[in-house]
Amino acid sequence: MEKTMPKNFLWGSASAAYQIEGAYNEDGKGLSNWDEFVKIPGKTYKETTGELAVDHYHRFKEDVALMAEMGLKTYRFSIAWSRIFPNGKGEVNQASLRFYEELIDECLKNNVEPMVTLYHWDLPQALENEYGGWESPQVIDDFVNYATYLFHAFKGKVNYWITVNEQNIFTNFGWMNGMHPPGKHNEEKLYYQVNHHVFLAHAKTVIAFKEIIPDGKIGASFAYSPSYAVDCQPVNAMAKVDYDNLKNYWWMDVYAYGRYPRNGYAYLDKKGVAPTVSQEDTSVLKKAASLIDFMGVNYYQTSVVEYNPIDGVTQSGEMNTTGKKGSGQITGEPGVYKNPPNPHLETTDWDWTIDPSGLRYACKEITSRYDLPIVISENGLGAFDEKTSENEIHDDYRIAYLNAHVYELMQAVEEGCEVWAYCTWSFTDLLSWLNGYQKRYGFVYVDRDEEGGSLDRYKKDSYYWYQEVIRTNGATITK
């Protein structure tokens, strides 16, 4: 018998404002931390920026028309905080509000459910200048003010909301390895305090949301890499437990339970880097945890965990941002864990492990641990795509990747997991943050590279493949 997804399953795709919109200084938009950060030499591949990106700001109707033709059920996109509030707070920029209004209306007109991410890494630079952005608790009220403004503005039009995208990634890259704004290294105590501020911003936003849109659905999106112990030696099994408490449950437990993992907190407290948590903070986090509707998951890969000696590798290993396979380095926490490669699995050109069964593993673990519905808010393959002289893009490798992941997701649903949506990353090609335009993820090829291009859109083979998956509600997925 053919497998299909439950009725009304949201087959989707996703993007982020900075990576697609361009128009970085048009219609009254304020600068974001990313607009400034990419000016630092050597931070991005070939000094690429999002100033033009793939010009979605001016081409959104064309892009939504392609979504409609595909039959897409939901489109997850982020709103740029610095478009709505150029100074992070204060006066609202009506021109930018109109842009998002038109984008949402265009989606609704084409039967595409809008799924809005409030924060996908682009903080208004004005708040960075004023008080250090996420480093200050002042940011919490400014974020809630921004979020509640949008809830009122789009009430009745947007039912699905994501507070924060990949909090674990932007904080780690921003305060531990210097690869994202504000570009700081090994500021461990500050890193955990920043995370605490983000958690409180998320929590207070969830509480406000339920007062404004009580029937709406809200959660956060977590970059989840489920872990496997490298073998059955107890020392490595223990390293896996510690890894999960520090790298996975540290975030998901707060979203779902409103508290930090006790073992992880004890370890950080002993190191002198645990965040300061007041009783009031705890009650806010717990209240929000009782109100969230789903766990958002951005899934790309699993991790292998092995015990790391005290003089072992650190968190500051080089990351592969060039697509030169094998150039990424092993990282870890000295005396606790390290993450060697998995010898049983293939990797992408950027050294990301390809593990479709890990998506099923992730869903089952979340279902067992949190008993929450799941939204897969990102899953996809970054690759070097080539356009032929006939303007065709034969990305059979992407089709194989997505097919294998969706098959495992369908297995997870059969095994009792409640999954509401599956959003691929991404719909069109886009700027891949540090990796430039060469790392392509989309169903739609954008004629754009590090030097420029026409920005014309071309459907890849995967576009037609996903169109059939959606049309049949997953019946065309093969084992």
UniProtKB/TrEMBL annotation:
Q: Which Gene3D superfamilies match?
A: Glycosidases (3.20.20.80)
Print the keywords alphabetically. Glycosidase, Hydrolase
Active-site residue numbers? E378 (nucleophile)
| The UniProt record lists the keyword Oxidoreductase | no
List, as start-end ranges, the regions of compositional bias called Polar residues.
316-330
InterPro entries xrefs: GH, GH_1_N_CS, Glyco_hydro_1, Glyco_hydro_1_AS
Q: Where is this region: Disordered?
A: 316-342
The lineage's top-level taxon is Bacteria
Question: Which Pfam families does the record cross-reference, listed alphabetically?
Answer: Glyco_hydro_1
By sequence similarity, the record places it as follows: Belongs to the glycosyl hydrolase 1 family.
Name of the featured protein: 6-phospho-beta-glucosidase
Source organism of the structure = Candidatus Enterococcus lowellii
